[in-house]
Design goal:
Strand 1 and strand 2 form a beta hairpin. Helix content is 49%, strand content 10%. It has a two-stranded antiparallel sheet with strand order 1-2.
């Protein structure tokens, strides 16, 4: 699979490992067992509500996702 990263001008390639393969690997190596423990955490989307923070700090400048990625790109590629 490939994920476009327009801010960095590259594509990220990754492979999705089936659960059965992770279970089998976990029998041999402890690392896959640790990763398998985290999977339920990512089964649902995380929804964040920052309304209380924004109410308490109305003048706080919020950085957008796109701005943050652009800052990282400039720091690592300039």
């Amino acid at each position: 699979m490939s994920l476009p990263l327009p801010f960095f001008g590259v594509s990220s390639r990754y492979t999705v490992v089936p659960h059965w393969a992770q279970n089998a690997a976990g029998l041999i190596n402890p690392q896959p067992r640790k990763i398998r423990e985290l999977l339920p955490r990512y089964a649902a989307d995380n929804l964040f509500d920052d309304s209380k923070f924004r109410d308490r700090f109305p003048d706080f400048a919020v950085t957008s996702h796109a701005e943050g990625l652009e800052w990282i790109r400039r720091e690592t590629h300039d």
